[in-house]
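thread from #wetlab-drylab

HS: before we spend reagent money on co-crystallization trials with heme C, can we at least see a predicted complex? here's what I'd submit
DV: go for it
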Amino acid sequence: MKRSVMAVSALFLGASMVYAGSHGGGVTFENNIRPLMENQCFACHGEHAPLLEEYDANKEEFEALLQGPRMTSYEMVMEFVKGDDAGALMRRLDDGANTQDGAPGNMFTYLGETDEERQENLAVFKEWVGYWTLKRSHELSAEELEKFTVHK
Ligand code: HEC
């Protein structure tokens, strides 16, 4: 009796893990995205990079130094997923499959050394975002905003 109960709960566990995996539930900012960004992005978006406000006020100066806005916390990154600058993360990281001219976003290259690595890391970002759209904030409906999974 006890054994079959355990077998059934193991089955349920297995099923919910598969479900989570295919709906972005398995990918979180702290466990997956932040470590990935630490390796691929923080050279230019890390702790020494300017906060967004400061960056926006002196864009040219920071761009010349190859510094983008700081993206070290969940909240900072959310700005580029579904905040005022919604879709920026997706527009910059897209491999060209969803862009109008078929060219990749200008941060795609930093996703990895090889095309394979870039595609693998892109897939992790896609799973985390949950709703891969290149739309800007004024183009996103309230319903669409609900579709971003972005687990912390
Ligand atoms: C070699 C430096 C460098 C690396 C590495 C880098 N970036 Fe950037 N990034 C920049 C600079 C400089 C800008 C600002 C200039 C521009 O908009 O292209 C920028 C801009 C951005 C923007 C737009 C910000 C805005 O204000 O709208 C996003 C989103 C972004 N990067 C994401 C990433 C992600 C994610 C990674 C890692 C996969 C990454 N970047 C890696 C230098 C870098």
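DV: The chain is about 55% helix and 0% strand.
HS: ok that's useful, forwarding to the group
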